[in-house]
Design goal:
Shape: globular
Order of helices and strands: EEHEEHEHEEEHEHEHEEEHEEEEEE
Helix content: 10-25%
Radius of gyration: 20 Å
Structural class: alpha/beta
Largest sheet: 8 strands, mixed
Number of helices: 7
Strand content: 25-35%
Distance between the termini: 48 Å
Strand order of the largest sheet: 1-2-11-10-9-5-6-12
Length: 376
């Protein structure tokens, strides 16, 4: 056991590390959050979302999380939770398929964005700033593999109660009659053994059959938050409910499923033209996270000094791990707020990757800004 105390602007987090494949300070920083439902934020250092991260570090986390799944019965259907775990889920799945040389691994992510047809199901993430998730129908080409799934892998950046993934798993049971195993994968898992056992038993009772449940994480621990005396919760920003239809949301990047592994779309025909070898910051936008990672990795392997991070709908209170934040254009045209926390310094050239036509202007006047569209 290893105890830590983290003082935030609005309270104190007390953390106990129970098991660590990666050290706590390698995985997490901490911040206050503008959310009365959950006023603190575990800020991942290895996710490429709120903080910049090296692509090689991201690849290492994907490999370590994929390792316990290499021999899982297939087909394997992996679902990453939007928006935070879109890139994480795709990365874990891509490494699983690559390391095991398997062709029966598939990836899909939940979304806050509607496509032209009704979704397969919806569920809620209770403590989120944007609680409603949609899971769309897989493409017709992948429908048979989805229905034949024997291993379901649910991916989030961290597990604290398991309610969101439990709701998703229960909603999926009627659609997966061949299911034998569920793996819950996260960078950090805060659930203790009784909570894990109760989660698994509830799911087995709902399924009416034996289901193996596997827990995969890089760190296990416990936490408690004590609010600062007299500190009122910060209200959510007003623009958290979509008001308009999104701009041409793409269905080919994971919302309707992908067979893994996928290769980088950033070939010589689509690679950005770069002057000399400037330090680079690749910035993904919203749910567009894995294609930017593949670009960052391609550039890193070519010898560039490059970091990767993404814009997010998650509001924060400045301080602790998040010292700066800029408002960004909504890449989907819904009228909701997006932010880039811990933005790149002016010396880094910013390559912003979009899947939609929105957001052509740089959110910061000092940036050297290049806007890229995901190929395809």
């Amino acid at each position: 056991m290893d105890d830590h105390t983290v003082v935030l602007p609005n309270g104190t987090l007390r953390i106990t590390v129970v098991r660590a494949q990666w050290a706590l300070d390698e995985l997490l920083a901490f911040a206050a959050r503008a959310n009365p439902r959950r006023p603190f934020l575990f800020v991942s250092k290895v996710l490429g979302r709120h903080l910049p991260c090296r692509p090689a570090t991201l690849r290492a986390t994907y490999a370590d999380l994929a390792a316990p799944l290499l021999n899982a019965p297939g087909p394997i259907w992996i679902i990453g939770l939007a928006e935070t775990a879109v890139g994480l889920g795709a990365g874990v799945g891509n490494e699983l398929a690559r390391l095991a040389a398997r062709t029966d691994v598939f990836f899909q992510h939940t979304t806050r964005l509607p496509l032209s047809a009704p979704p397969l199901l919806t569920f809620a993430e209770v403590h989120s700033h944007a609680p409603t998730h949609l899971l769309h129908h897989p493409t017709p080409a992948l429908a048979a593999a989805f229905a034949a799934t024997r291993t379901l892998v649910l991916v989030d950046d961290e597990l604290s109660t398991g309610r969101s993934l439990g709701e998703l798993a229960r909603a999926l049971l009627p659609h997966l009659p061949q299911l034998e195993r569920i793996a819950l994968v996260a960078l950090v898992n805060w659930l203790d053994d009784p909570a894990r056992a109760a989660w698994a038993e509830t799911l087995r009772q709902r399924a009416g059959r034996a289901l193996e449940v596997l827990w995969v994480s890089l760190l296990d621990g416990r936490f408690a938050f004590v609010p600062a005396p007299g500190r009122a919760p910060v209200a959510l920003p007003p623009d958290v409910t979509p008001r308009r239809a999104p701009h041409r949301v793409r269905a080919d990047l994971g919302r309707r499923g992908l067979r893994l592994p996928v290769v980088s779309p950033w070939t010589d025909d689509h690679a950005p033209a770069l002057p000399a070898r400037p330090p680079l910051a690749v910035v993904g936008t919203g749910e567009c996270a894995f294609a930017p990672y593949l670009l960052a990795e391609t550039l890193e392997q070519a010898g560039y000094d490059v970091t990767m991070q993404c814009t997010t709908r998650s509001p924060v209170v400045l301080g602790a791990a998040i010292r700066a934040s800029v408002s960004c254009p909504d890449p989907y045209g819904q009228g909701v707020g997006y932010y880039l926390h811990h933005p790149p310094p002016p010396e880094r050239m910013v390559l912003a990757v979009y899947e939609t036509p929105a957001g052509r202007d740089a959110p910061h006047p000092d940036w050297r800004w290049t806007r890229l569209a995901v190929p395809g």
